[in-house]
Write a structure and sequence with these properties.
Layout lengths: L8 H14 L12 H8 L3 H13 L3 E4 L3 E4 L4 H8 L2 E3 L9 E11 L2 H7 L6 E11 L2 E11 H4 L14 H9 L3 E12 L2 H7 L6 E11 L4 E9 L4 E3 L14
Antiparallel strand pairs: 1-2, 3-10, 4-5, 5-6, 6-9, 7-8, 8-9
């Protein structure tokens, strides 16, 4: 028996446009054809195109600007920071941009945990980074980040002069990899001895460990990150917001 796709037309159209974006037909930051142009090309109504764009906008794949059009989403400086940096000061609730220090950039054989998270065969290569993030000179976060080597190749994180904390801009703009979603898992942990010197705190100190896997538009894992965070004066904030509601003033 033949299977028929009974999804609404706009859902099927959104899927079709998404596939074309994944193939690289439209690049991050690029202006997409207008609703009327696409409707004529694909022989659908303008309303169907509009609803398809609404779906893609909700998925974070496109951004819509009144009077300018619809653009393929990109990892802008603001989005890269506000979406993925979650430590807030416990006294005033403010998020502040940390100062980043790159401690390590290497191409090395993947560890077992990296292979598992990135779905790599044993002995595969990864491009591994380590950075320390500090506020007012006080280290708060130590991160080890690994990417599949084949997705990064000869690119060097931070060489383009961009702010070092924009990992997703690096992947997108230098490596052609767009991150569509991330998974974070939090654990209470003790700081490993081998990291204490780089972090500037004693081994065995209690820290919050965040383990992140980031996925591209096809659902393939492209980043495995371990972040050890000192939370003596900061909290890890995860904010959920219903569409159309305003955030509290800060």
């Amino acid at each position: 028996m033949t299977d028929f796709d009974l999804s609404p037309a706009f859902v099927r159209l959104a899927r079709h446009i998404r596939e074309r974006i994944v193939r690289g037909e439209w690049l991050p930051g690029q202006l997409m054809p207008g609703e009327e142009v696409l409707a004529k090309q694909l022989q659908v109504s303008v309303g169907t195109v509009r609803k398809a764009f609404d779906v893609l906008s909700g998925q974070g794949l496109v951004t819509r600007h009144r009077g300018r059009g619809t653009f393929v989403a990109r990892a802008t400086h603001e989005r890269a920071f506000t979406s993925f940096y979650r430590l807030v000061d416990r006294d005033d609730g403010m998020r502040r941009i940390p100062t980043d220090t790159i401690l390590l950039r290497e191409r090395a054989t993947a560890e077992a945990a990296e292979c598992a998270a990135l779905r790599l065969p044993a002995n595969s290569l990864v491009y591994r980074l380590r950075r320390r993030r500090a506020l007012d000179g006080v280290p708060l976060v130590l991160e080890t980040i690994a990417f599949p080597y084949e997705r990064v190749g000869g690119k060097e994180w931070g060489e383009d002069g961009a702010a070092a904390h924009l990992v997703y801009s690096f992947l997108e703009q230098q490596c052609g990899v767009s991150v569509s979603r991330v998974e974070d898992r939090l654990q209470a942990a003790l700081l490993p001895e081998e990291l204490s010197a780089e972090f500037g705190i004693a081994p065995g100190e209690p820290v919050l460990l965040a383990i992140r896997v980031a996925f591209d538009l096809n659902g393939a894992p492209v980043e495995y990150r371990r972040s050890w965070m000192v939370t003596a004066g900061h909290d890890y904030l995860c904010e959920l917001r219903w569409a159309g509601t305003a955030s509290s003033p800060r």
